[in-house]
Design brief:
The complex is a heterodimer. Chain A is of the alpha+beta class. Chain A has six helices and six strands; from the N terminus they run H-H-H-E-E-H-E-H-E-E-H-E. Helix content of chain A is about 30%, strand content about 10%. In chain A, the strands form three sheets. In chain A, strands 1-2 form a two-stranded antiparallel ribbon. A two-stranded antiparallel ribbon of chain A has the order 3-6. The radius of gyration of chain A is 22 Å and the shape is elongated. The longest helix of chain B is centred in the first third of the chain and has 44 residues. In chain B, a hairpin with a 2-residue loop joins strand 3 and strand 4. Chain B is globular. Chain B is built from 15 helices and six strands. Chains A and B meet through helix 1, helix 2 and helix 3 of A and helix 1, strand 2, strand 3, helix 4 and helix 5 of B.
């Protein structure tokens, strides 16, 4: 009798585990899916909050998808991906043209795992780097004098320097990729200065 | 073994305990909503103030109301209150919360993080201390005392009994209890292989936290110039689906047979210190406690219900002869008693 019960339990466990491994495997694929290009930026890359692990695979395995970094963010820059967004479900990402990071670094202090590593100095942030599109930038193409990105930059005259007509030049090695310049850019639609993280969606 | 809490039926103490239990879970649910509202409200006001100054348009009435609210909160009294409470320093939900810098994390989150990254951070371990110690003492108490999703499922339970009274047919599906343990194990294995946390994506308290966070963001988003409304996503549909299933298919379907978090809490609290104790000499076999138990356990079978008991104390309230009581003793003393019982 006991043996029969034991065999039945084993059979149930094997059955349920086969079913759940199939189901959860499919679900894991859904969670890991490679998505189409970002509708605005056009590249399948994602900007993570400051202090995010360099390796995207490590970041995805460390992040437990709580909402702490978003709740801590004072500017609402951090968004959590839902279904249909380019980033993986529940992971934090930033769209600088909507709302940029002000480098408060509150998210790095509240993260319960090492997905966002604790940062103290704003110059240690490496979220990406800003690139100026000289064809659309009004100061570069000669349609006006702007300088909005230079005004917004937290590292004025260090990461962004100005030429004639306030034409901005970004120094790649000094730019932290906060995206305040992208948010401030006056060009409608696709901004003339954009942050590229170089972080491909895995 | 010492007597910890005895509550014969009819005593106001037992009703008080149930009220306390429901209020605690309601407070958890409301505070998750409140944390989201505070966080997004702060962002909304900062952004809107900038927008109003820049555009100098006439803000819509709803936005004006929100800004007026902000002005009120900026006044002296509210400022003092915020200075004392520092509401913006409470972050997250039951999956992982940051309460004035003190971290509390669900053991399932830590287990999954360990499985997927093969590495556990110090702050995660610190956050684990309180829940694990409490579970070692009290068993699976999270499910009936804190879990905000469990609160919603309890409402489904009430709805179920109401429907039964009216005469609407409801099913009594019974699955194998081991399902949730198998699901926990396979979920951790799949997570380790895939490198993404799988269980956290459908664990109801975590999903509920994420959904509330998204909905509170929507709440302030509709007040801005360019609303981006995400609405209820797949997680919200899951929660609603579970509520419907628990109403019509089986009582506490998810908690009893599926929930991987409940399985982990059961395993951690298997040898808990405080447990419901049955004095079999006084028991009249009225089966009231079996009827009332939301987890479908049998407190009469042995001296004490097994590791899946979530300490909701409903059986204590229902027991007419008063043979059930909450006792505390070292984990070994429980098992000794149980083995003696088996020998007899």
């Amino acid at each position: 009798m006991i043996r029969r019960k034991f065999i039945r339990t084993i059979a149930r466990a094997v059955g349920v585990s086969i079913a759940s491994i199939t189901g959860l495997g499919a679900f894991a694929n859904l969670l890991k899916r490679k998505d189409a290009a970002n509708p605005v930026l056009g590249e399948p890359e994602v900007i993570r909050p400051p202090g995010a692990l360099e390796n995207e695979i490590d970041f995805l395995s460390q992040c437990i998808r709580c909402t702490r970094c978003r709740d801590a963010c004072p500017t609402g820059a951090i968004k959590l991906a839902g279904f249909g967004d380019s980033a993986q479900l529940g992971t934090p990402y930033i769209l600088p043209f909507e709302s940029a990071c002000n480098l408060s670094l509150a998210c790095t202090t509240t993260c319960p795992t090492e997905a966002l590593q604790l940062l103290i100095l704003t110059k240690d942030v490496h979220m990406g780097r800003a690139v100026v599109d000289e064809r659309t930038c009004v100061s570069h193409n000669g349609t006006g004098v702007c300088g909005a990105c230079h005004t917004a930059c937290p590292f004025k005259n260090f990461a962004i320097t100005q030429g004639p007509h306030n034409a901005p030049t970004v120094h790649e090695d000094r730019c932290v990729g906060c995206g305040l310049c992208e948010e401030a850019c006056i060009v409608e639609g696709i901004k003339a200065i954009r942050v590229y993280s170089g972080r491909q969606l895995v | 073994m010492r007597n910890f809490f005895t509550s014969p039926s009819g005593l106001p103490g037992s009703i008080l305990v149930q009220c306390l239990r429901h209020l605690l879970r309601l407070a958890v649910l409301l505070s998750i909503i409140g944390v989201g509202l505070v966080a997004h409200y702060r962002v909304f006001v900062t952004k809107e103030k900038i927008n109003v100054i820049h555009s100098e348009e006439h803000p819509s009435s709803a936005r004006k109301l929100a800004l007026d609210m902000h002005d009120y909160f900026q006044s002296n009294k509210a400022d003092q209150l915020d200075g004392k409470c520092r509401l913006s320093e409470i972050r997250g939900n039951t999956w992982s919360a940051d309460i004035y810098g003190f971290s509390v994390t669900d053991p399932l989150a830590a287990a999954e993080s360990l499985a997927t990254s093969r590495n556990i951070s110090k702050s995660l371990l610190l956050g684990l201390a309180l829940p694990v110690i409490a579970t070692l003492l009290l068993g699976r108490f999270f499910c009936s005392w804190i879990c905000p999703a469990g609160f919603l499922f309890d409402i489904a339970d009430r709805l179920r009994s109401l429907l039964q009274k009216i005469g609407v047919p409801v099913h009594h599906l019974h699955l194998w209890r081991g399902n949730k343990f198998v699901l926990l194990a396979t979920g951790l294995i799949v997570g380790a292989m895939a490198g993404v946390p799988v269980l956290g994506s459908f664990y109801p308290p975590a999903v509920l936290g994420r959904e509330i966070s998204a909905l509170t963001a929507d709440f302030f988003s509709v007040l801005t110039d360019y609303p981006t409304v995400t609405g209820i996503s797949l997680g919200g549909i899951l929660i609603i689906g579970i509520i419907i299933a628990e109403t019509f298919v089986s009582r506490r379907l998810w908690c009893r047979f599926v929930c991987p978090g409940g399985a982990l809490y059961s395993l951690i609290g298997a040898n808990r210190v405080v447990r419901v104790h049955n004095d079999l000499n006084q028991c009249t076999r009225c089966n009231e406690c079996i009827q009332v138990c939301p987890m479908g356990l049998n407190p009469m079978k042995t001296e004490s219900p097994g590791m899946e008991c979530d300490q909701c104390m409903l059986c204590l309230e229902s027991c007419q002869p008063g043979s059930l009581s909450l006792k505390w003793g070292l984990p070994l003393s429980h098992s000794e008693n149980q083995s003696e019982k088996q020998r007899e």
